[in-house]
Write a structure and sequence with these properties.
InterPro entries: Cu-oxidase-like_N, Cu-oxidase_2nd, Cu-oxidase_C, Cu-oxidase_fam, Cupredoxin. One of its GO terms (molecular function) is copper ion binding. Pfam families: Cu-oxidase, Cu-oxidase_2, Cu-oxidase_3. 45% of the residues are buried. Helix content is 6%, strand content 44%. The protein folds into three domains: 4-151, Immunoglobulin-like; 160-299, Cupredoxins -  blue copper proteins (Immunoglobulin-like, Sandwich); 325-445, Sandwich (Immunoglobulin-like), CATH 2.60.40. By secondary structure, it is mainly β. The chain has four helices and 33 strands. It is globular. The chain binds copper (II) ion. The site of copper (II) ion (CU) has 5 residues, from β32.
């Protein structure tokens, strides 16, 4: 039961799986991550199983779980028929390990392997997924994705810790993945949306039962390739405690709803009602009004005692307390369409083969504007760094860090960050059909 476990079960599990320490000076062997064909029961039985791709025989792939300060040493073994790489979404820095092919590494050919070594300096919820330009969307849609959890030294108190991978599959009537990838019309629109929402690899919803008044830590990741998910909470009290791997002061989301872009992660404490027989749920809001339940909670048994207010995870001291906007390098990216082709700053995009959008010296503050001149929401991802979303009208910013921000149709959004990690960093739309069609560029920190 890897996804939902009580604190006690989790602690017992740590003991049960403790590995012998390697001899001094000897590097432990890599964690092998084999990407290849898998069969999965996505639709409820007796519908047939679906041929998909997974890591180590499962999709979502195994949860990679470490402690803060550990080193992740993983060997991607590519047993698929496509070139591969692994992007580790949310991990800062270490350009050569960012997994964006061909920008930061060569693609890993079918049959080949590649070693990733990442020092895990920040605790939080991360994910891993293919990062090969033009191929990543199909590989992700066929099932290659997984969570990386870096535990904080002192976990916040909760009654349960639930990891949730949300996914969006496009299946035909027989339960097979529809092979209509790289559709030019979809790349001009919202991207390749699916027709089956899955929670941890099985069709939604997923049901849980807890004592009244339980506090549930929910760690959510949207690992779909295109669908921006508006997730609403009903019946309980949600408090957001981390966004895109970085802790924030706990806050109740506006209208009890969070907008989760592809590859974004949110952590919440969800307090269930204090009475027995009550219900609470997490819902996917659909634009057409056909909302869908994703998580269902029922309370049963003796109520738990009253809870203290949700505490804050320690803020990350590695992130800059101030960003000097007045001294920042200001860069604008106008994203438009010309006869159905994406353009960046008025020109057809050369993606990672073109010149960088900008170059800065290490340590430079940067203000970056995403000016969306299209009718389609974009999910713009700045690689290697954590960014602040600036307010539209003043110098303030939202009180949490982001990897990806939504640029709504016809609007400009600005982010600020300190470019403190050297290398060639991708800057692209995390709706991967958009990336493949050219909503992709890069910047260089020297
Ligand atoms: Cu990205």
């Amino acid at each position: 039961m890897p996804f939902a476990q009580t604190r006690r079960a989790f602690l017992a599990g740590v003991g049960a799986f403790a590995l012998p320490l390697p001899a001094r000076g000897e590097e432990p062997p890599p964690r092998i991550l084999e990407a290849g064909p898998v069969k999965a029961q996505l639709l409820p039985a007796p519908a047939p199983a679906t041929d998909i791709l997974g890591f180590d025989g499962v999709s979502p792939g195994p949860i990679l779980r470490y402690r803060q300060g550990d080193t992740l040493f993983a060997r991607l073994v590519n047993k698929t028929e496509k070139p591969m790489s692994l992007h580790w979404q949310g991990l800062r820095g270490e350009n050569g390990m960012d997994g964006v092919a061909p920008l930061t590494q060569a693609a890993v050919a079918p049959g080949a392997s590649f070693d990733y070594r990442r020092k895990l300096e920040d605790p939080g919820l991360f994910c891993y997924r293919p990062g090969v330009f033009k191929e990543a969307g199909e590989l992700l849609d066929r099932g290659l994705k997984g969570l990386l959890v870096v535990d904080e030294p002192k976990p916040l108190e909760s009654d349960a810790d639930i990891l949730v991978v949300l996914d969006d599959w496009r299946l035909d009537a027989k339960g097979a993945i529809e092979g209509d990838f790289s559709n030019a019309d979809e790349a001009k629109g919202a991207g390749r949306l699916g027709n089956l929402i899955a929670v941890n690899g099985a069709s939604a919803p997923k049901s849980f039962e807890f004592q009244p008044g339980s506090r549930i830590r929910l760690r959510l990741a949207n690992l779909a390739s295109a669908r921006i998910m508006a997730l609403s909470f009903e019946g309980g009290t949600p408090s957001v405690i981390a966004v895109d791997s970085q802790p924030c002061d706990p806050f109740p989301p506006v209208r009890n709803t969070i907008p989760v872009t592809p590859s974004a992660r949110y952590e919440l404490m969800f307090d269930l009602p204090a009475t027995e027989g009550a219900k609470a749920r997490m819902i996917l809001r659909a634009a057409d009004g056909r909302d869908q339940d994703l998580l269902l909670f029922a309370t049963k048994g003796a109520p738990r005692g009253a809870r203290e207010p949700v505490r804050s995870l320690p803020q990350n001291p590695a992130l800059p307390p101030v960003i000097h906007l007045e001294q920042s390098k200001k860069v604008d990216l106008v994203i438009a369409q010309d006869n159905g082709r994406w353009t960046l700053n008025g020109r057809p995009s050369k993606a990672y083969a073109g010149d960088p959008l900008f170059r800065v010296k290490r340590g430079t503050p940067v203000t970056l504007g995403f000016d969306n001149r299209t009718g389609i929401p974009l999910a713009m991802h700045v690689h290697g760094h954590c960014v602040r979303l600036l307010h539209d009208l003043d110098d303030g910013w939202e009180p949490y860090w982001r990897n990806t921000v939504v640029a709504p149709p016809g609007k400009a959004k600005h982010v600020a960050f300190v470019a403190d990690s050297p290398g060639r960093w991708a800057l692209h739309d995390d709706i991967l059909d958009h990336e493949a069609a050219g909503v992709a560029t890069w910047f260089e920190v020297g």
